[in-house]
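Example record

The entry below shows one chain as it appears in the dataset: sequence first, then structure tokens.
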Amino acid sequence: MKFIKLYELKIFTAEDVLCGDEPFYKALFKEARRLGLGGGTMIRADAGFGRQVRGNDGRALPVFFSGSYNLPLIIELVDTKENLATLFPFLEKNGDRHFLAVIVPLTALHTKYCEESGKILNRPPMPLMDEPDV
């Protein structure tokens, strides 16, 4: 088995955070697609803890007029460090929005899917590692 070194850009935010007329996470994904990043996922959480949480028990409270909840979101984007860095200007431009971004190094198993995805995105082959970093 061969491994590759990747990075995860993880962003903690909430459903009600806007970027212009659309939710922040949708604007972020549009920019990530435009930049050709490898892939991303948005996860809605049942509860969150932090300065902006609205309920005493840490759960989001219903907004009765819209019928929706303002739940915490986690956005995960995985790619090389250099490719993720192309998203930094977008994050800096929207730095006044309510979010926290962290970068986490990953060691990923190099699979046929990774190889095929790289070809579709016109990327050079990823440098392989013999053993994962532990």
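Notes for this example: Confidence is low (pLDDT under 50) at residues 62-67. The helical segments are 24-35, 81-85, 88-93, 112-120.
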